[in-house]
Specification:
The longest helix is centred in the last third of the chain and has 23 residues. The chain starts with 5 loop residues before the first helix and ends in an 8-residue tail after the last helix. The chain is α/β, with parallel strands linked by helices and 284 residues long. It is 49% helix and 17% strand. The strands form two sheets. The protein has an eight-stranded parallel β-barrel with strand order 1-2-3-4-5-8-10-11, surrounded by nine helices. The chain has eleven helices and eleven strands. The chain has a single domain, classed as TIM Barrel (Alpha-Beta Barrel), CATH 3.20.20. The structure holds zinc ion.
């Protein structure tokens, strides 16, 4: 199956009252694990790469892996740039074949965020590639930037932002943070509901690693159609590799410890697809 884009996928999730899991695939084994989980549960899904991953390996490499795996598994999958931080990186990913682009101008002022986002929407529109943008600040560490004081998404700004930019989905800041949580996160669900009433495009939840199942489902009930999982996948993979090497310190074949990392990620992703309500939705 060819890579699909996220627009139809997210609109279907929106009308069906579920969410699509978006998983950051740092390497081939993590990517394989997400495909296996999706095929086993018949869940449509999104693979994502961040700018720091694209410094480690190129957009062409990640596209090649995603494309190759998509031929082996008959499940709808999109390849998405997560937290694109410049027009240039958005253009590079578009050229490589990515089917969905996020441009994150949330650290800019409102007018600058609108201008940058509009530029990327105009770039992607002729290729029918949808664009996600962010308004407000998700806390924690994303790439090199640490935010201690998350600014929640403003309702009037959200409505205005969508009208001015023509984006296909909007990432909102309602109290989640990137990375693992040190305390219990307090989500502003009322704000999410109010954003939903003003903005009719699919809404995106960042920083879901470590949220409870109930937290995630409460957000989906209030309009979230895409949930991003990154930190916990990296953790599951690395714990699997560490265990394999501890059990057998003489291991030297990357395939041998990679297998255990992959199995751990697969288990975790199946759980997350279930929580999102996406299981079985690939059959439609
Ligand atoms: Zn994020």
């Amino acid at each position: 199956m060819a890579l699909t884009d996220t627009k139809e996928m997210l609109l279907q999730a929106q009308s069906g009252g579920y969410a699509i899991g978006a998983f950051n695939a740092e390497n081939m084994e993590i990517m394989q694990a997400v495909f296996e989980a999706a095929a086993e549960t018949q869940s449509p899904f999104i693979l994502q790469t961040t700018p720091s991953m694209l410094k480690y390996a190129s957009a062409d490499v990640f596209f090649g892996m995603a494309r190759g795996l998509s031929l082996d598994y008959g499940v709808p999958v999109a390849l998405h740039l997560d937290h694109g931080n410049s027009f240039a990186i958005a253009a590079k990913c578009l050229r490589a074949g990515y089917t969905s682009i996020m441009i994150d101008g949330s650290k800019l002022g409102f007018a600058e965020n609108v201008a940058l986002t509009r530029q990327v929407v105009d770039l992607c529109a002729p290729c029918a590639v949808p664009v996600e943008a962010e308004l407000g600040k998700v806390g924690g560490k994303e790439e090199e930037i640490v935010t201690d004081d998350p600014g929640y998404t403003d309702l009037a700004e959200a409505e205005d932002f969508c009208a001015r930019t023509g984006i296909s989905s909007l990432a909102v800041a309602i109290g989640t943070a990137h990375g693992f949580y040190s305390g219990k996160p307090v989500l502003d669900l009322e704000r999410l509901l109010q954003i939903r009433q003003r903005v009719n495009i699919p809404l995106v939840l960042h920083g879901a690693s470590g949220l409870s199942d109930a937290d995630i489902q409460n957000c989906i009930k209030r309009g979230i159609c895409k949930v991003n999982f990154a930190t916990e996948l990296r953790n599951a993979y690395t714990e699997g590799v560490k265990d394999a090497l501890q059990q057998n310190p003489a291991l030297y074949d990357p395939k041998e410890f990679g297998k255990l990392g992959r199995a751990r990620v697969r288990q975790l992703v199946i759980q997350r697809m279930l929580v999102c309500g996406a299981v079985g939705k690939a059959r439609a």
